[in-house]
Design goal:
Order of helices and strands: HHHEHHHEHEEEHEHEHHHHH
Distance between the termini: 61 Å
Strand order of the largest sheet: 1-2-3-7-6
Radius of gyration: 21 Å
Structural class: alpha/beta
Shape: globular
Strand content: 5-15%
Number of strands: 7
Length: about 375
């Protein structure tokens, strides 16, 4: 495949030149009218509502965890535009191979908040996604999901189906061998996989500058012979355009693509992390000015599209999320014994201690109801 075979938008924003695709700026003003995707009012409104739902659910999940009602959780704050733009371009028969910070995309594919809450409560049935076809479980081990994505893509190609595999990884994950192996495999076999790097600037406490000496992360596509593009990850329209072009390219049998979504993790890496230890408040404030929800809302207001009662909508979302959390909290389908008894033929003392501690935790939760 030559550069001329790449999607037009990928050719125009060549990562070798460190160009970044952006459609609207932080004030919601059009800065690249020529590439503005053709979306009607209702689709734009729906996108905002989905992003808002993810924001509300994410904030509530953190609150539940802080109350001791859920285990370690991975916040999504600031990355909603990526997730919803991807979700709006994933078809029913397409595949989603997530990492662990793609809540909005999982929701768009049919995963419920109850299932995600179960997952973060340590219940393996939370990874079953009963009503979300072709979604793999959340992958905590960094990078391992990408090889699964390439393998599924190979199967799609062998079966001659018009299916696309969407998969995600963080900026830190690009330093893993699995990343290079999966992209090399996908490039050689020209499988229909859309790889997304969510470059939120930090792999826990390690900045991107300590991960790579490349001018950007999208440029890593060049070595594997596939189209790559760097996109403003806080710009819904730019992300939608990139995913639209990528999905069409992959679905038509032209092989894999790599998207670098340039964004910022406004919250902690997980609820066990303290970002004040490794980044400055001034940096967080500066990036908050580019909040994807604020940007899209400003665009809608300036173009006469805003007629959403946001306060009412937030209250509705809070009730819905709380209902799903309570349902997950009452779920008793996962036997405690299954967590411990299959690891060793004779349970060691340390595991017995952990089991007792967990039983104590469950009794405490039960007493609060």
């Amino acid at each position: 495949m030559t550069h001329d075979d790449f999607p037009a938008i990928f050719r125009d924003f060549n990562p070798l030149e460190d160009k970044m695709l952006r459609v609207i700026d932080s004030e919601g003003d059009l800065v690249n009218k020529e590439v503005m995707p053709s979306l009607d009012k209702e689709i734009i409104k729906d996108a905002y509502k989905q992003m808002l739902y993810e924001r509300v659910a994410d904030e509530m999940a953190i609150s539940y965890q802080r109350q001791g009602r859920m285990f370690t959780y991975t916040p999504n704050l600031g990355q909603e535009a990526i997730h919803i733009a991807a979700g709006m371009n994933i078809g029913k028969d397409d595949w989603l191979v997530p990492a662990f910070r793609e809540m909005g995309t999982l929701l768009a594919k049919g995963v419920t908040m109850e299932e995600m809450f179960l997952f973060y409560m340590g219940n393996e049935f939370g990874g079953g996604f009963k009503n979300a076809p072709r979604v793999l479980p959340i992958a905590i081990s960094i990078g391992t999901q990408l090889q699964h994505a390439s393998g599924i893509g190979y199967s799609v190609k062998c079966r001659e189906k018009e299916e696309v595999v969407f998969t995600f990884i963080g900026d830190g994950g690009t330093s893993e061998g699995d990343f290079s192996e999966a992209l090399n495999f996908a490039g050689v076999w020209q499988v229909p996989v859309v790889f997304t790097i969510q470059n939120n600037q930090y792999a826990i406490s390690v900045p991107v500058s300590a991960q790579t000496n490349s001018i950007n992360l999208a440029v890593k596509s060049v070595a594997f012979g596939m189209p790559g593009i760097k996109v403003d990850g806080n710009d819904f329209f730019a992300m939608y355009l990139a995913y639209q072009a990528a999905a069409e390219h992959a679905r038509s049998g032209k092989g894999p693509l790599l998207i670098e979504a340039f964004t910022y993790r406004l919250g902690a890496h997980t609820t066990s992390d303290d970002p004040t230890k490794y980044r400055k408040k001034e940096e967080e404030v500066e990036w908050s000015l580019s909040d994807p929800l604020i940007r899209l809302k400003r665009y809608m207001e300036k173009n006469g599209l805003w007629d959403i009662d946001e306060t009412k909508l937030i209250e509705e979302y809070k009730k819905e999320v709380d209902m799903q959390f309570l349902s997950a909290e009452k779920n008793k389908t996962y036997p405690l014994e299954d967590v411990f008894k299959y690891m060793y033929s004779d349970m060691p003392d340390e595991l017995r201690r952990q089991k007792a501690e967990y039983e104590q935790f469950l009794n405490w939760k039960e007493s609060r109801q």
